[in-house]
Each structure stands twice: as C-alpha cells, then as structure tokens.
Amino acid sequence: MARSFTQLSLQERRTIARLQEQKIRQSEIARHLGRDRATICREIRRNYWHDRELPEATGYWAIAANEMARDRRRRVGKLYRCDDLRMSVINRLKEGWSPEQIAGRLKVEPGMTVRLCHETIYRYVYSPEGQHQRLAQYLPERRRRRRPWYGRKPQSPVFPPDRSIRHRPELINQRQQFGHWEADLMIFRREHGEANVATVIERKSRFTLLFCNNDRQSRPIMDRLIKEFSPLPLPARQSLTFDRGFEFVSWRRLVDGMGTTAWFCDPSAPWQKGSVENMNRRVRRYLPRETVILSLPRTYLRQLCDRINGTPRKCLSYRTPAEAFRDEMLNLKFTNPPPVSPCNPDQPV
Q1: Strands 239-242 and 261-264, how do they pair?
Q2: Confidence (pTM)
Q3: What is the greatest pairwise CA distance in the chain?
Q4: What is the pLDDT of residue 200?
Q5: Do the Cβ atoms of 324 and 314 come closer than 8 Å?
Q6: Strands, DSSP E only, in 6-122?
Q7: In sequence order, which residues have a C-beta less than 8 Å from that of residue 292 and are 6 or more positions away?
C-alpha cells in the first residue's frame, strides 16, 4: 500500500538543521524523522541557503528553508502560473459562479486540457492576492474569512435528546405529510443593527413565509411564530424544525402555545434542515448581507413572498408553492385557504 506524502513541517526542518550541523548522515536523519532518505536529500538540496555577500551565512537554516518551500509552492500553483486560467476563473466568479461550478465546467468544456479543483480556487480567493482583489465578495456566502471545518463549538444542551432530528418520523423526512415546517434566521451586517428576517418553509409544498424581527431574542421570535401560525388548523402546523441557535432556546413556548412539535438539528449541522437553507440562498439574491432591513418599505417582504411562492418549482411538477399550499389546505377542508402568505411579513416584532 502506497504511503501518503505530507510536506515537511517547520519542526522537522529544525531537526534537520540541528542534525545537519552535527554532521549526522542524511540516512540517519531520515531514519530519525521516519522519512525517506531521498526526501531529506531533496529538501537540503532545494532549500539550501546560498549567500554570496556573506559566505559565512551559507547553510541550511530551518526558517529560511520553510519560507523557500512555501514560496515555491505558491509559484507553481496553476492559478499563479497560468494567466489565462486565472482571468477565466476570476471572470466567472464575478458572474456569480461558485468555485465548484467553475471546476466542474472546466472538466466538460471541449478542448480544455487544464483541470482545476474547487479547493484550489478557494485557496486563491483567500490568499493575499485574492484578498487584495476582494474576490471573496463574489462567493455565494460572501465571507471575508474562510470558516474552518468543525470550527464552531456545539451549543449548550438546552435541547433534549428526544427532540433531535434523528428521531423525526420518516413520514416527515420523505415529505409525505403536509404541515411540517423548517425555520431559520437570515442575519445581516452587524453595523446595520440587530434586525433580521425569519424564513419559514413548509417541507411538502415549499410554501415560504418571511417576516422581520427587531433583534435575535428568542421569546419575541417564538411569540411571532405563534401569532402567525395560530390561525392555521393544527394539521397545517404539526411541527417545526430548527437548528440549535440561541434564538430558538424558547422553543417550549411554541409547543405550549399552539401544540406544535419542535425538532432540532444536530450540533453544528444546520444543513440537516436543507429546505430552509436552500430557500435562504434563494432569498439572498434579493436580500444580500449589506441590506439595511429597517430601511425597506413595509410591503417589500410581502411582495418578495408573493414572488417566491408564485415561481414554479421543478420538485412540484412545475406548480407554484402557492398552488401546492392551496391544494393541501383544501384537502384539509379549510374553508377559505389563503391565496398568499397567512402572515403579515412586513410587520416587525
């Protein structure tokens, strides 16, 4: 079985420099580090410091070797080496393509011999060159800094284990039953205040509600959900799925207030409520993070709801969410099914 290769670390280079100064043979250095002898030989040959002005400074130095190796890896990168490829990637980023879409398109374009991994594009975007060009603002998430995997700490255990999404009935998971919703908050730039927008979507019909909140306090948000969902019959509001954000810690008010069941994603796994996460990305087209929510007209969110719920969806056989929601309400023998959102989305808490 082939061994996987990893770059030499700074600590290993310090060990090489110390043993090299002690006149230890390269084979012994390799055995000490658990590396191949060729790796040590190549490392010393490629990163040996030559100083013509100060011959006494010539030698293998760990810090200098580490910087030389880092600069060499940057220079040989495809996006640093190929100007045409780099400009093509940047132009597509500006057109709204994601790095994964760019990398995937390069594989199927006729006559294209260059292959590129989406991780390479992300690294270039967040490199000093990419930061100087402000390429991160063209990414779907528009993050100024790259968020590390598993970087978020789990929230405190205020959500009981029996309310975990892992225990949610399979009937809900397969979207076979009407009346099960997912909810989330869309957050905006902090300098514009604490106002946010709650997104609530029905899993089967994809019917979406949007309403504004003045802050992220949990109790007002839950009271607003109770106010907007109470007019619906119980079969149309059977459950709500949240992530484990602190804005949902008052979930028991929702259960006690209208008898709706609450489910919660696993810690640091908001992707498990994929319907509302996908809807948030759709809504971001109209409400980017730079939006000042409280400056919008009072009817803007209602009009946005109408636009989203009036757009045909492939998963609904190209019916609109409003039509699917209306049909489900008629099946429940609801006498006056609302043609649009049952809430008043433009009124803040």
Answers
A1: parallel
A2: 0.53
A3: 93
A4: 96
A5: no
A6: none
A7: 188, 192, 193
Give pLDDT, residue 143: 74
Residues whose CB is less than 8 angstroms from the CB of residue 208 and which lie 6 or more positions away in sequence, other chains included? 199, 200, 201, 202, 279, 305, 308, 309, 321, 341
pLDDT of residue 194: 87
What distance in Å separates the CA atoms of residue 131 and residue 138, rounded to the nearest whole number? Answer: 12
Note the pLDDT tens digit of each residue in 332-344.
864 444 444 444 4
Distance CA(14)–CA(214), nearest Å, equals: 55
What's residue 16's pLDDT?
A: 92
pLDDT of 178 reads: 94
> Domain limits of the chain?
10-75, 78-138, 161-331
Q: What crossing angle do the helices spanning 218-229 and 251-258 adopt, rounded to 10°?
A: 30
The burial of 16, by beta-carbon neighbours within 10 Å (0-12 exposed, 13-18 middle, 19 or more buried), is given as buried
Closest of 297, 286, 96 to residue 186, by C-alpha:
286
Q: What is the structure's pLDDT at 140?
A: 77
DSSP-derived pairing of the beta strands 196-202 and 180-186: antiparallel
Give the span between the Cα atoms of 37 and 35, in whole angstroms.
Answer: 6
The pairing of beta strand 196-202 with beta strand 261-264: unpaired
pLDDT at residue number 343 = 46
Q: Residue 163 in contact with residue 263, Cβ under 8 Å?
A: yes
Q: At what angle do helices 118-125 and 83-94 cross, to 10 degrees?
A: 80
Residue-wise DSSP of 247-295? GGTTHHHHHHHH--EEEEPPTT-GGGSHHHHHHHHHHTTTS-TT--GGG
- What are the residue ranges in the chain where pLDDT is below 70? 1-5, 73-76, 147-157, 333-349
CA distance 106 to 103: 5
Q: From CA 243, how far away is CA 272, in angstroms rounded?
A: 8
> What secondary structure letter does DSSP report for 319?
B
Q: At what angle do helices 300-309 and 274-283 cross, to 10 degrees?
A: 120
- The matching CATH number, chosen from 3.40.50.2300, 3.30.420.10, 3.30.2290.10, 3.40.50.1370, for 161-331 is 3.30.420.10
Q: Which two tokens stand for residue 213?
A: 């909140």
Q: With beta carbons less than 8 A apart as the criterion, state whether 62 and 17 touch.
A: yes
